[in-house]
Amino acid sequence: MKKIKLLWFLVLIFALTGCDLVDLTPNQLLNETQVPITPMVSSTGSTFYLTSSGQVWGVGRNEVGQLGIGTQTTKELNPVLVGEGIRYVSMGIQQSYFIKTDGTLWGSGKNEAGVLGNADTTNQPTPVFIASDVVLVDTGEYFTAYVTSSGELWTMGYNESGQLADNTQVSRWLPKKVFENVKDISLGYSHMLILTNGNEVWAVGKNNFGQLGTSNTTNQLLPVKIAEDVLAIAAGAEHSLVLFNDGTLYSTGYNFYGQLGISGSNYSNKSSLTLVTNNVTAISAGVYHSLFTKATGDLLGMGSNDSAQLRGTSFAKYVSPTVVHYLSWQNYDTFFAGSSQTFFLTDDDRVFALGLNSVGQLGDGTTTWRTESTEVFLDLF
Hints:
CATH architecture: 7 Propeller
Number of helices: 1
Order of helices and strands: EHEEEEEEEEEEEEEEEEEEEEEEEEEEEE
Strand order of the largest sheet: 2-1-3-4-5
CATH superfamily: Regulator of chromosome condensation 1/beta-lactamase-inhibitor protein II
Largest sheet: 5 strands, mixed
């Protein structure tokens, strides 16, 4: 993949919930973390984008300082400069995390249950220091996990369902090491998927809809292995996607909107990994919709379309994968599912989006919902 102007691009739109890499191509990032990092990650009414020069720009909600600009305002419709010398960004419901070029992890925003990991519960409109030697971070519903350069997994925040993976249900204000040999992580509302360097997937936390893929609905306080020979993972709010090295895509968990993409499932939940399709090359999960690309280059989605995040104005839900509405004349380099949006970057460095835009989170300077693919971030680049 060619270098893109928006090296990182994160969207936070509902409740959900991605390192010293300035001006790096995706392949260079793969060499350090051994995981192909998408240029976009998502979660609640705000958007961050990290340029190839290491600048972070933010737009959208900021009522508890989640943009990290030192203020607490209702929203920012036009991009504001958040910081420089950043290599990675992730966002939770109302908090944000920044990994600087020196590997230090910083956080800002709402600090409920000590999710910022700084031994406090005070909201922080200006980023505060959390840890060093960090390469990855992700955040769910007021719980957060990060991975160090040696593959150690550390967690903090809410723990009512065991999502911190420390064999307790006690929330923590400070990070604690809970797992090793980690390549990638993906957090849902209250569950976590862990991809190891051996390409195994382990799952932990809340399992009320079978999102852990353990063939039951029992919460897990310690990680349980659910798959091997895996290429990529993606956690939605209460569902999970697992892409195997052979190109087969499986899903499990909550399926009210059809986000599992299992034809004929009648929107029933699944508690074990169930085949969706094959010849898949990449995946992404929003709150209640899922996206994937086929080897043919087609971008497909399934699940909720309540904000037209998949296609058109029907506001239906799709139980079977359907082609996502995008400009057929414009090839895209990569894509990402926001909580109720879909974003993709084209091969000539343009950004398009569709879906929910109630507080300007699409980054087009308006609060108009987009039912067709619309070019955004025009003024910044």
